[in-house]
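Would you kindly consider the sequence and fold I have copied below?
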Amino acid sequence: MTTPQQCPVIVIPQAPTASDDESSASGDRPTAPSQPQGGVGDAAKNLGRALGRAAGRTAGKAAHGAREGIRKNPTANTAYRTGVGVVGGGTVALGVVLMPLPGPGALIALGGLGILSTEFDGAKKVRRTAEGAAKKAYGVAKDARARHRSRQDAPKNTGEGDRQA
């Protein structure tokens, strides 16, 4: 018989209440207005981060284990790969349709390639090439924008100051 695992107990410190301040205040010195110490907020923030990291690790391990189980069963593997192909292909198609419109059409298409590349080597190669082209285009656009802004910020020389009357 196995024994259940015990979960760690997490203690969150309590903020002092108004009654705690009144009981500790002495009558011979003035009391300063109480300011939040940030300890409770920091503790909650750190707790949230720790739980998020743990959940991410657990989910990653569970997904990896589930995918290994699917790979062992040929029927499930075929169904899974078909599902990935349909979802990824649909996302790529949606991105291609949205490209001429204002919005993130190219990013949606790259996301679809990312989905496809989780299962298909050909899509992985295309995704790498597309990401390289997107990064290159981003760099060119960034340089062009910087040149354009530098021309706008430069003082305009109209030539009127050079004339003599």
